[in-house]
């Protein structure tokens, strides 16, 4: 899958699905601006040494406007355009809605939802000027079903679906496409943290496996491969799509 002509911004790039997207995009020839709040980002996966010309990093909070201004500016200065904006960073607390503190609620909404608004403000003008572009927003099975313990995370992921549809319709005349990718459970630090927070990690992880008809959870690479396809020219007819990649979870 050739991405040689593509410039992509990827948030949540230091870990899990985002780190695999960065790796696969670089392998496929793309130029990438990787974004994460984790100061270890520039060292993540040893990619900066392998691809010194095609990888730039921004360490910042995607819930803050200045981060979006920084990644958009860096992409335009370093590579002259932005083809693909991947809003993938997220946080989660495993709690029913009424047990979230106001600070936790705001944090989840800022990182998972408002970050997409900031990305739109920072990136849409450049895409319009260039004649088009693509947003890919990471949703979840929690975007479309209620799951116990996802009191703030679930609503935030639901909002991502509607932002995706809204932007897709709004910007279709500008040749800017917008899709949501909604994974089932993926074996990443986010899930391991949720398991640890649950009080019974073993039962939590076993339950996740059997909850998917396919009988297992996904590996990050399986999700990143789909992003690579969606970023390629083979996926030009997708827009406003809410794409489940969930081992059958939401087929039940
Ligand atoms: P992860 O925890 O492995 O990675 C998330 C990354 O986002 C981390 O590197 C973290 O530092 C970064 N991040 C967190 N807050 C940030 C902020 N404020 N600003 C910038 N970066 C920030 O998680 P993951 O499992 O790879 O999740 C990636 C995406 O996939 C998320 O949107 C998540 O909701 C979604 N998702 C994950 C699963 C799963 O089972 N792992 C399932 C469905 C959807």
Distinct ligands, ions and cofactors found in the model: nicotinamide-adenine-dinucleotide
The CATH class assignment of the largest domain is Alpha Beta
Q: Which residues sit in consecutive blocks of at least 5 with pLDDT less than 50? A: none
H/I helix tally: 8
N→C terminal distance: 32 Å
From the structure above, extract its key features:
Rossmann fold, 2 domains, 15% strand, binds nicotinamide-adenine-dinucleotide
Descriptive notes:
The protein is an alpha/beta fold. It has eight helices and seven strands, in the order βαβαβαβαβαβαααβ. The chain folds into two domains: 7-183 and 219-243, Rossmann fold (3-Layer(aba) Sandwich), CATH 3.40.50; 184-217, no CATH class. The protein has helices at residues 16-27, 47-50, 65-79, 102-130, 153-171, 189-197, 201-211, 220-231; strands at residues 7-11, 31-36, 55-59, 84-87, 133-138, 176-183, 242-245. Strands 3-2-1-4-5-6-7 form a seven-stranded parallel sheet, sandwiched between helices. The mean pLDDT is 96. Nicotinamide-adenine-dinucleotide is lined by residues 11-12, 14-18, 36-38, 61-63, 88-91, 111, 138, 140, 183, 185-186, 188-191.
Short description:
Helices cover 44% and strands 15% of the residues. It has 252 residues and is α/β, with parallel strands linked by helices.
């Amino acid at each position: 899958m050739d991405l040689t002509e593509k410039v992509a911004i990827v948030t949540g790039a230091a870990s899990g699905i985002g780190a695999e997207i960065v790796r696969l995009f670089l392998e496929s020839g793309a130029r990438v601006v990787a974004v994460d709040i984790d100061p270890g980002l520039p060292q993540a996966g040893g990619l900066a040494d392998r691809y010194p010309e095609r990888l730039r990093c921004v360490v910042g909070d995607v819930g803050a406007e200045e981060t979006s201004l920084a990644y958009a500016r860096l992409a335009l200065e370093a590579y002259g355009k932005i083809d693909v904006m991947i809003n993938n960073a997220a946080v989660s607390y495993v709690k029913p809605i009424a047990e979230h503190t106001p600070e936790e609620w705001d944090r989840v909404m800022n990182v998972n939802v408002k970050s997409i608004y900031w990305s739109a403000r920072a990136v849409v003008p450049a895409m319009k000027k260039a004649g088009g572009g693509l947003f890919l927003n990471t949703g979840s099975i929690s975007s479309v079903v209620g799951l116990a313990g996802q009191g703030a995370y679930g609503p935030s992921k639901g909002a991502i679906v509607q932002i995706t549809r809204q932007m897709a319709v709004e910007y279709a005349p500008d040749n800017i496409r917008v899709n949501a990718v909604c994974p089932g459970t993926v074996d990443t630090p986010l899930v391991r943290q949720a398991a640890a927070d649950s009080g019974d990690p073993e039962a939590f992880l076993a339950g996740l496996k059997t909850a998917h008809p396919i009988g297992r959870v996904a590996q990050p690479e399986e999700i990143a491969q789909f992003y690579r396809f969606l970023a390629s020219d083979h996926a030009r007819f997708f827009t406003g799509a809410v794409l489940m990649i969930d081992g059958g979870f939401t087929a039940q």
